Structure formats: structure tokens, C-alpha cells
Amino acid sequence: MNLSVTSDFDQIFRFLNEIYLLPRVTTISGLDFTHDRSGLISTTMEINSLWQERPTQLASVEAPLPDLSKSEIALLKKIENDGSVGTPIEIPDVPRGKANIFATN
Predict the structure, then answer these.
(1) Domain ranges in the chain?
(2) Where are the alpha helices (DSSP H) in 3-69?
(3) Whether the Cβ atoms of residue 79 and residue 85 lie closer than 8 Å to each other
(4) How far apart (Å, rounded) are the C-alpha atoms in residues 30 and 4?
(5) Closest-CA residue to 1 (of 34, 30, 35)
(6) What pLDDT does residue 68 have?
(7) Which residue among 3, 77, 79, 101 is least crowded, i.e. fewest CB within 10 A of its CB?
(8) Please, which residues have CB within 8 angstroms of residue 86's CB and are 6 or more apart in sequence?
(9) Please, which residues have CB within 8 angstroms of residue 34's CB and are 6 or more apart in sequence?
(10) Domain of life of the organism in this record (predicted)?
(11) What is the pTM of this model?
(12) Are 32 and 44 a contacting pair, CB within 8 Å?
């Protein structure tokens, strides 16, 4: 949607904040400001909003989770065997500055 708004700075700033607080993914692009001698600011922008209707029925929290597929199990084993996840790295203890920042030496 292309939109043009003319108002004072505070109202335009409040309007943009309200757009960013919407409970859906919203992007603003092509934001352009111009002002006149009366102090009003004209703003043009393109707003794109992605949304989906709320579900009318939710699954039960008691329902069991589906079993992992063969490809998911293979991926999990690959990650476990790789060693890049879950292997802690020992960081040496090094001096981090003065114990007393007000000391002269």
C-alpha cells in the first residue's frame, strides 16, 4: 500500500511507532519526508503487511508429538557426531584490568 501523510513531526513519529507495534510482520520502504514553512511534514511510504488469520481451533497440549522422520534422525546423529555442538571450549583465565580502578599503581 502506498501512503501519504501530512502532519507535524510528533504525530508522524507516533504513527510510525504504531505501525511497528502491529502484531504482524510489517515493512516500511521508500520512506520520504518533506517539510514546508508552516512546520508540517509530508511523508510518503510503502507499507507491506503479511498476516494470517488466527486459528479457530488449537490442538490439545496433551497430544503426543509426532516421531522424528528418518531424515531428521540422520541429521541429529550427524550433528551429535560432528562435535561442533555441545563441546565446551576452555577459556584461559587472563587478567582483566585493575582490581581497584582508583589505585595509582
Answers:
(1) 2-50
(2) 9-20
(3) yes
(4) 11
(5) 30
(6) 93
(7) 101
(8) 80
(9) 41, 42
(10) Bacteria
(11) 0.44
(12) yes
**Bridge partners (DSSP) listed for residue 46:** 2, 29
Residue spans of alpha helices (H) in 4-96: 9-20, 70-82
Confidence check: pLDDT of 45 > 90 = yes
Radius of gyration of the chain (CA): 27
Evaluate if residue 105 carries a pLDDT over 70.
Answer: no
Per 3-state DSSP, the chain is made up of helix, strand and coil in percentages (nearest 5) of 25, 25, 50
Place of cell 589505585: 103
pLDDT in tens, 4-22: 999 998 998 999 888 888 8
Q: What are 88's three cell numbers?
A: 565446551
- d(CA 15, CA 8) in angstroms, rounded, equals 11
Q: Which cell numbers in the block locate residue 95?
A: 587478567
Residue 72: what pLDDT? 92
Who contacts 68 (Cβ-Cβ below 8 Å, separation ≥6)? 76
Question: Which residues lie below 8 Å from residue 12, measured CB to CB, with a gap of 6+?
Answer: 5, 41, 43
